[in-house]
Model the fold of this input.
Amino acid sequence: MVVDDSDVALEIITDDLTDAGFTVLPARSGQEANEVIATGYKPDLILLDVMLPGMNGYEFCTLVKGKPETKDIPIVFVSTKDESELKEMIVKAGANGYMRKAVLTQGGLSKLIEKYLK
Done:
């Protein structure tokens, strides 16, 4: 699952993952992603933008990690901000990692997937 309110980022990430053979479910907000997960859908990995309208990435991550049935889903924050700016939030929310959006367009996406889907 990819959660991002930027159409450009959502398209780039979705296309790259689809080209690599993954099935991708895009969501444009934390609320939309939460509604999908509430139906019982359990993604193998969630790539999550930090800044989202309504329910932001931190709130969504905290919600997912707080439920027994979804707490083990790996969540990786994806943002244009530096990790140092977000480190405390990443830890408090229970996220499994962080990646800058710029890295995704430089071939870093496949390495990320390999790391978290083992």
User: Anything to note?
Assistant: The domain at 2-102 is CATH 3.40.50.2300 (Rossmann fold).
